[in-house]
Amino acid sequence: MSVKRIGVLVSGGGTNLQAIIDATLKGDINGEVVIVISNRKDAYGLERARIKGIRSEFVDYSDVDAYNKRVLELLIEEKVDLVVLAGYLKVVGKDIIGTYEDRIINIHPSLIPSFCGKGYYGERVHKAVLDKGVKVTGATVHFVDEGTDTGKIILQEAVEVLDDDTIESLQKRVLEIEHKLLVKVLRMLCK
Ligand code: GRF
């Protein structure tokens, strides 16, 4: 069975990326991260790639179409089979969605359809969860379509919200589940 070529798009710290890299190197996923792309030069996710000798590309176009065109070029150049959005804060261009239909996944730090969509990312998600007072939150991995957090759900896992939770404590616990869930989905998709 050929090893799947994975491309990862990041905008921040890249802890989800790190979980994928570690799992592929341990052989837990029949895949290899061949490129990491970011819209932010200072995204630590790019450094995580460099440390492991994985190609890392900062794409810097103010024009959205030129930006997405370059991202697609890089994915095709590296013969990527599967695209992962891991803490990626840009809208994915239509051409990329069309080229990689049902081959792009995203990790979101809530139980979609709650606390998702425009403006719900990173700490804002957990703040909304705490402000609403829900007792259960979690993480969702879903396929990416042209909407925001609207693609077909693949896997979810619940996380209990504790009475004394802060945004930071909740984010930390959800992030651990995100890492586990993302690796589980990639193991399934790369079989
Ligand atoms: C996490 O909250 C993740 O759910 C969201 O982006 C945040 C940062 O993730 N997708 P990472 O540490 O950059 O992987």
What can you tell me about this protein's structure?
The protein has 191 residues and is an alpha/beta fold. It has one domain: Rossmann fold (3-Layer(aba) Sandwich), CATH 3.40.50. The protein contains 6 helices and 7 strands, in the order E-H-E-H-E-H-E-H-E-H-E-E-H. The chain has helices at residues 15-26, 44-51, 64-77, 94-99, 123-132, 167-189, and strands at 4-10, 31-38, 55-58, 82-85, 104-108, 136-143, 153-160. The chain has a 7-stranded mixed β-sheet, with helices on both faces. Helix 1 links the parallel strand 1 and strand 2 (31-38). Helix 1 runs parallel beside helix 6 and helix 5 (123-132) crosses helix 6. The chain is globular. The model has no long low-confidence stretch (mean pLDDT 97).
Which key features would you list for this structure?
191 residues, alpha/beta, Rossmann fold, 6 helices, globular, binds 5-O-phosphono-beta-D-ribofuranosylamine
Kindly summarize this structure in a few lines:
This protein is an alpha/beta fold and 191 residues long.
Distance between the termini: 8 Å
Number of strands: 7
Structural class: alpha/beta
Strand content: 15-25%
List the bound ligands: 5-O-phosphono-beta-D-ribofuranosylamine
Could you tell me the mean pLDDT? Answer: 97
> What is the helix content?
25-40%
CATH class descriptor name: Alpha Beta
Compute the number of structural domains: 1
Largest sheet features: 7 strands, mixed
Order of helices and strands: EHEHEHEHEHEEH
Strand order of the largest sheet: 3-2-1-4-5-6-7
**What is the fold named in CATH at topology level?**
Rossmann fold
Instruction: Give the uncertain stretches in residue-range form.
Output: none
Gyration radius, rounded? 16 Å
* CATH 2nd-level architecture: 3-Layer(aba) Sandwich
Number of helix segments?
Answer: 6
- The rough form would be described as globular
CATH superfamily: Formyl transferase, N-terminal domain
